[in-house]
Design goal:
Layout: H1 10-21, H2 35-40, E1 45-48, H3 53-61, E2 73-76, E3 80-85, E4 92-94, E5 99-101, E6 104-106, E7 118-124, E8 138-144, E9 148-153, E10 159-164, H4 176-179, E11 184-193, E12 201-204, E13 207-209, E14 211-216, E15 219-224, E16 230-232, E17 240-249, H5 253-270, H6 276-280, E18 288-291, E19 293-298
Parallel strand pairs: 1-2
Antiparallel strand pairs: 3-4, 3-7, 5-6, 8-19, 9-10, 9-11, 11-17, 12-16, 12-19, 13-18, 14-15, 14-17
């Protein structure tokens, strides 16, 4: 099945010898290096797997059907296109930029702290010339600073309300009830949006310790348990004033350390089997919403 304007190559002879010696030959190489054209010079029939989705399904069920035809027979298949699967959010999306290099697929990836993805290959295709990045770039719309109303919910009968002009770890407070707090701290604030347009809007909480729930205008957005503490809030927003509530649940450590330092006899009586001496040497952990909290939008590609 010779093609026009084909210039003979050294590998033509190699391919012909291999076809004489073996029942099948695999041709592997970078994309667009001429593998298909070289193979077409030596075969009598060809099937292009990517031309019909049924071919791929047939290959899974009864691959022998794909071999029916004059021999030598070329079975031509493009590499599969990578997809990004986010197990945390359930998002599945295609990847714009990737390369075939030395027979391997190279995918540029970007990870936040403690972030991971699955790269799954399902559909066939080829690299494109898209300038769109694999991961969006963000620009700040506004920062949410000052005037934080914080409600500290510890035990059932223990609730304390404080105001913060600046976000900082609770364990740095001079107030022992705040310094040694363990439980859920509810941060409330408002922010103004003059326009939304068709932008995708996100909230970035910065640093958080430890588990966080986000509410916008009374509607739950998401639960985040690791960085990056960022979530899309587009469908929860409105023009004008928006109400933000961030619920941060801390660990029990600071409360235990505080009890030992301020009232060791009581905690010893309540927890007789706990090695109290181990707590006395422990340092406090950062706690609550540390920020900075920002409203961001995805930059559009020109």
């Amino acid at each position: 099945m010779e093609t026009v304007n084909y210039y003979p190559r050294i590998c033509d002879q190699v391919l012909n010898r291999k076809l004489q010696l073996t029942g099948a030959t695999l041709i592997v190489g970078p994309k667009w290096c001429g593998k298909t054209e070289t193979a077409l010079q030596a075969v009598r029939s060809v099937i292009y797997i990517q031309s019909d989705p049924q071919y791929k399904e047939t290959g899974k069920i009864m691959p022998s059907l794909l071999l029916e035809g004059e021999t030598p027979r070329l079975i031509d298949e493009w590499q599969e296109v990578p997809e990004l699967w986010n197990a945390e959010t359930g998002e599945i999306r295609s990847i714009s930029q990737w390369l075939m290099e030395d027979g391997h697929i190279s995918v540029p990836l970007k990870f936040g702290p403690a972030e991971s993805y699955f790269i799954v290959f399902r559909e066939t295709g080829k690299p494109n010339d898209s300038s769109s990045p694999n991961f969006p770039n963000y620009s700040d719309v506004r920062s949410i600073e000052g005037n934080w109303n914080v409600q500290l919910r510890g035990q059932a009968d223990s609730t304390l309300t404080i105001k913060l002009d600046k976000l900082t770890s609770l364990h740095l407070s001079p107030n022992p009830k705040v310094k040694y707090f363990s439980g859920t701290a509810i941060y409330r604030n408002t922010f103004q949006l003059d326009q939304i347009n068709d932008d995708r809007i996100f909230i970035d909480l910065g640093d958080v310790a430890n588990l966080v729930e986000i509410y916008i205008n009374g509607e739950k957005v998401s639960v985040l348990w690791k960085p990056p503490f960022k979530s899309e809030i587009t469908d929860k927003l409105k023009i004008g004033q928006n109400y933000l509530e961030i619920r941060v649940s801390t660990t029990w450590r600071n409360r235990l350390v505080g009890e030992v330092l301020t009232n060791s006899e009581d905690i010893a009586n309540n927890l007789p089997n706990y090695p109290i001496q181990r707590l006395r040497g422990l340092t406090l952990l950062k706690s609550g919403l540390l920020g900075p909290v920002k409203i961001q939008k995805i930059l559009k590609q020109k």
